[in-house]
């Protein structure tokens, strides 16, 4: 298992630190040809427009799209979620290029600007059932997007009441009453579709490694839907019993 981490901009070092704690080999990805040597990929949070411009400059988008189509596991956090979405709204003039593959519509900066970032306890029943530990995780939202619409094949892993976001953030960037109606007073902040995982928040900024463990157990699929690699059961990725190590930014 070799995990690639897109290292153009953003919190790629924090993801790498978690992977090292889990004993997983990783490679920083900056060039298209480097994707040939990894079994899965993390697209970190950061400034999505800047990341997109750098990816375009390095001609990474064709290789990223091919990586997704091959069925290899890809996880996008925050800006990475925007990368993976088939459609994004609330963008700057001209928008940005997307990798696509995830059947959803993402609203960029849904919760507001940088100073309106917040933390909250987020229920994660699927992750807790698979990885053990408490039924919620500490979710760090930094100038975060939100998923306002998903396709039929997308599994929702976590959502957040808009009222909770308003409590933590006095002026979320909800662009219209129509979008609020679509959200039914909740917005989706974590999803899974086939080989794709996406979170609007930053698990790499907490001591909870369960999201990374969950991702590392996602296996690539061949065209007929069967596993393309052997089991990774020899690697201990369980949450229960592992010492919690606080990171310097958030606890």
UniProtKB/TrEMBL annotation:
Keyword Nucleus included in the entry's annotation: no
UniProt KW keywords: Glutamine amidotransferase, Hydrolase, Lyase
Pfam family, one: SNO
UniProt-listed GO biological process terms: pyridoxal phosphate biosynthetic process; pyridoxine metabolic process
Chemical reaction(s) catalysed: L-glutamine + H2O = L-glutamate + NH4(+)
InterPro entries, A to Z: Class_I_gatase-like, PdxT/SNO, PdxT/SNO_CS
EC annotation from Swiss-Prot or TrEMBL: 3.5.1.2
Gene Ontology molecular-function annotations: glutaminase activity; lyase activity
CDD domains for this protein: GATase1_PB
GO CC terms of this entry: cytosol; glutaminase complex
PROSITE patterns documented for this protein: GATASE_TYPE_1, PDXT_SNO_1, PDXT_SNO_2
Record family assignment: Belongs to the glutaminase PdxT/SNO family.
UniProt xrefs under HAMAP family: PdxT
Protein name as catalogued: glutaminase
Species in which this protein is naturally found: Capsicum baccatum
Lineage of the species this protein comes from: Eukaryota, Viridiplantae, Streptophyta, Embryophyta, Tracheophyta
